[in-house]
Amino acid sequence: MNVPKQSMRHLIGSLFREAGEAMDRVGCFLQGSLAYKEDLNRTRRVMKFKNFKPSVQPSSFIAPNASVIGSVSLGPNSSVWYNVVIRGDVNSIQIGENTNIQDRVIIHCTGKVGHEKPTIIGNNVTVESGAILHACTLEDESYIGFGATVLDGAVVGRGAMIAPGAVVTPGTIVPGGEIWAGVPAKKLRELTPEEQESIKKSAAELSELAQVHKQEQDKEFEELLHDMETFKFREDRLEEYTYEKVESPSSTAPTKN
């Protein structure tokens, strides 16, 4: 029977790690009350919560330090960038396809009795860095600016834009094709056709960029070693650079006799 090299390496690595944990437990037992036990939690990008396990499409990208927890579904070619937290522990969170959730975004839902609301994010949506989404709905091709907040029961219509730093209060309905700004957010104006096209373009560009990050993240150990060798500093490459010699003032100053 032919066993894939990657699977064999994973199996052997797991055995070593489990053996190390077992030896640590034996050592703590022997030390008794004098033992110092350090509890370590393995970092997991995708984590099950109770009976809810995230559903992630193979073509999607989740950054190494992002957290996707519980009842979360992530559509094809969507991306969850660095330091994002998507927590579907009290209700569900749905994210469509070609949608990008950028760095440091927080997405949650609500499970309060009588006020249960999921978070639903459509297709080709852009959520810029630092935004907070809570129990709201973002329709297809909507755009949430840097640091904006969209709260419980709010709906951002198709092709609408929320300006950076704006706060969309609970229950607010933002019609499609409009830009809203301020605290609380109010209608600013209608979006131009060029701006609406720019929203679509942004989602497509981020989807392509995410695939580059995903390719780098999925590299095998041998590929990483090859990259390290390729980009290793070599003294013989210094000839490719030129430097302008600058003499220090002390070297040009006249000497006293």
Automatic annotation (TrEMBL):
- Among the Pfam families in the record, one is Hexapep
Q: From which domain of life does this come?
A: Eukaryota
For this protein, the record's Gene3D superfamilies field holds: Hexapeptide repeat proteins
Protein name as catalogued? Gamma carbonic dehydratase
The species is Naegleria gruberi
